[in-house]
Design a protein that fits this description.
Number of domains of chain A: 2
Strand order of the largest sheet of chain B: 2-3-1-4
Subunit structure (chain A): Homodimer.
Strand order of the largest sheet of chain A: 2-8-7-6-5-3-4
Number of domains of chain B: 2
Oligomer: heterodimer
EC number (chain A): 2.6.1.-
Number of strands of chain A: 12
Largest interface: A-B, 27 and 16 residues
Structural class of chain B: alpha+beta
GO biological process, one term (chain A): amino acid metabolic process
Largest sheet of chain A: 7 strands, mixed
Low-confidence stretches of chain A: none
Helix content of chain B: 25-40%
CATH topology of the largest domain in chain A: Aspartate Aminotransferase, domain 2
Number of strands of chain B: 6
Enzyme class (chain A): transferase
CATH architecture of the largest domain in chain B: 2-Layer Sandwich
Keywords (chain A): Aminotransferase, Pyridoxal phosphate, Transferase
Radius of gyration of chain B: 21 Å
Number of helices of chain A: 13
Shape of chain B: extended
Radius of gyration of chain A: 21 Å
CATH superfamily of the largest domain in chain A: Type I PLP-dependent aspartate aminotransferase-like (Major domain)
Strand content of chain A: 5-15%
Mean pLDDT of chain B: 94
Low-confidence stretches of chain B: none
CATH class of the largest domain in chain B: Alpha Beta
Mean pLDDT of chain A: 97
CATH class of the largest domain in chain A: Alpha Beta
Largest sheet of chain B: 4 strands, antiparallel
Number of helices of chain B: 5
CATH architecture of the largest domain in chain A: 3-Layer(aba) Sandwich
Order of helices and strands of chain B: HHHEHEEHEEE
Distance between the termini of chain A: 53 Å
Distance between the termini of chain B: 36 Å
CATH topology of the largest domain in chain B: Alpha-Beta Plaits
Order of helices and strands of chain A: HHEHHEHEHEHEHEEEHHHEHEEEH
């Protein structure tokens, strides 16, 4: 027999970066600026806590929502860092990466036919997540002229007033844009006025280089309509440990937990011990990594300007989003620079049509490689532009 | 603040060009040059050296960590003894430390015999030195904040979301 794929799975095209991956595999000496994960290892104290938990045989399931001690620790952390108050018993769920939390939210709150407005360019998993849940995606474009920040005008023009859910991701993957408090406030007003649920992915919150991160859930009247996603992958360099969490009102988190308990059961136990230690004692490690990213950010932005490629001043995450020179589409440029110079970058249209003409360049790579990669891009531009 | 940043970057890699440091710190290149010149002139930056993994070379160097105990008298202080010892080119590092002994001395030579002779003939006879304990370095795993040996490289996917 042949397997007949569900309509929902068929509706999701293959990932736009798969072909690039195959080209990169064929070549030696590729410097990859296409990665969305830290090049640092998890801070040693967190790794050590994970090892100790294994030595002690702590290998069983935890509570579905995650170890209570970890939920308490998360509650303290988000209160301290982002002025968010959540009850560890009912308003926090620990998940296998923030990605699982996002998926749970789509499945818990999106019905077939519901509209999910997504600020674009955006992380590539939101759109498939909405489709898997049976919903319909409403792209809300942001532009370089607005520093890739979401505006009320943008929401209105896209028709987001009629949407059911609004998805935000700031600091943003792929642009590196942030939304300061003064920019978020009108968005919060819009969400309240039009009765939108807000899914706010704040996985890059610690990687904010200009000012402090503000969560949209911290505005008056927003807590009750917002699910916040966060996790340990980015700031604590724990991608492979798969540990994230969601914060929200008790009913909402309860609904997400209903799906979680039948699918994941509980997040990886070893990772939960690592996360506890990460929150308890790794703030300095996080700060050191953030300082390094900030230096690399300034280096990369400055080099793109020297090369003559327009680049928006990214202020968060570990990506920048330069424009490709005239005469190239994003895909053409990315493919040519990979084939000719062995530098892997991601074409911006992978993150939504509005990303066309841009590249996502990750600086989660050592400075030596960054310098070499930028020199190669410069050689490519000198030859072809 | 910029001084501190420039120093941190030089400690990370003294071969960063002033242009690279300027890009990373958002300073003008001329400011970076001036800062480094000031730091050198003030004696804050004392020199630039390579971090070497001697195990990778055939003619590897012999290194020893030497614990020194001293007794002081009215005329001779720690600084006097240190000044005398630091002049020897074999002494690569010398620190006054707290704890069970007084000085921690790093010595380098071409052979165990050369290092031993240096300690017995040049260091031990110093009148104020009452005891030397020599530890030969067998393998070095980390030097100046840099891990030695072969790393496993970057095994992350070339592309990830």
């Amino acid at each position: 027999m042949t397997f007949e794929l569900s309509d929902r799975v068929q509706a999701v095209p293959p990932s736009g970066i798969r072909r690039f991956f195959e080209i990169a595999e064929e070549r030696d000496e590729v410097i990859s600026l296409g990665v969305g994960e830290p090049d640092f290892a998890t801070p040693w104290a967190a790794r050590d806590a994970a090892i100790t938990s294994l030595e002690q045989g702590k290998t069983s399931y935890t509570a579905n929502r995650g170890k209570r001690e970890l939920r308490e620790s998360i509650a303290d952390y988000v209160a301290d860092r982002f002025e968010l108050g959540y009850d560890p018993d009912e308003e926090i769920i620990v998940t296998a990466g923030a990605s699982e939390a996002v998926d749970l939210a789509f499945r818990a709150f999106v019905d077939p036919g519901d509209t999910v407005a997504i600020a674009q360019p955006s992380y590539i998993s939101y759109e498939p997540g909405v489709i898997f849940a049976g919903g319909e995606v409403l792209p809300v474009p942001t532009t370089k002229d607005d520093e890739f920040r979401l505006t009320v005008e943008g929401l209105e023009q896209a028709g987001a007033a009629d949407a059911d859910v609004l998805v935000l991701c700031y600091p943003n993957n792929p642009t590196g844009a942030i939304m300061p408090a003064e920019d978020l406030e009108p968005i919060a007003d819009f969400a309240r006025e039009h009765d939108l649920m807000v899914f706010s992915d704040e996985i890059y919150a610690e990687l904010t280089y200009d000012g402090e991160h503000t969560s949209i859930a911290s505005f008056e009247g927003m807590r009750e309509r917002t699910i916040v996603f966060n996790g340990f992958s980015k700031a604590h360099a724990m991608t492979g440990l798969r540990l994230g969490y969601a914060l929200g009102p008790a009913d909402a988190i309860g609904a997400m937990n209903k799906i979680h308990q039948y699918t994941m059961l509980s997040a990886p136990t070893t990772a939960q011990y690592a996360a506890l230690e990460a929150l308890d004692s790794c703030a300095n490690d996080v700060q050191e990594m953030v300082d390094q990213y900030d230096r690399r950010r300034q280096f990369v932005l400055s080099r793109f300007r020297e090369i003559g490629m327009d680049v928006f001043e990214a202020k968060g995450a570990f990506y920048c989003f330069p424009e490709v020179p005239d005469g190239f589409t994003a895909e053409e440029f990315a493919e040519a620079v990979l084939r000719e110079q062995g530098v892997a970058v991601v074409p911006g249209d992978v993150f939504g049509d509005v990303g066309e003409g841009h590249l996502r360049v990750s600086y989660a790579t050592g400075l030596g490689d960054l310098r070499q990669a930028l020199d190669r891009i410069e050689a490519f531009v000198d030859e072809h532009v | 603040m910029s001084e501190r940043e420039v120093l941190e970057l030089l400690r990370e890699n003294a071969r960063y060009s002033t242009a690279d440091i300027a890009r990373m710190t958002d300073l003008e290149e001329s400011e970076v040059e001036a800062t480094i010149e000031e730091l050198e002139a003030a004696g804050v930056v004392r020199g630039y050296q390579a971090v070497v993994d001697w195990d990778k070379l055939e003619d590897e160097r012999v290194r020893a960590e030497v614990e020194l105990n001293v007794t002081l008298d009215r005329e001779t202080g720690y600084d006097d003894i240190a000044e005398r010892l630091a002049r020897f080119p074999q002494v690569k590092a010398l620190r006054l430390i707290s704890g069970d002994y007084d000085f921690d001395m790093e010595v380098e030579g071409d052979s165990i015999r050369e290092v031993s002779q240096f300690i017995s003939e040049k260091v031990a006879p110093v009148p104020e030195i009452t005891q030397t304990v020599t530890h030969y370095v067998m393998t070095s795993y980390k030097e100046n904040g840099i891990e030695l040996g072969d790393g496993e490289g970057d095994d992350r996917l070339s592309f990830s979301p």
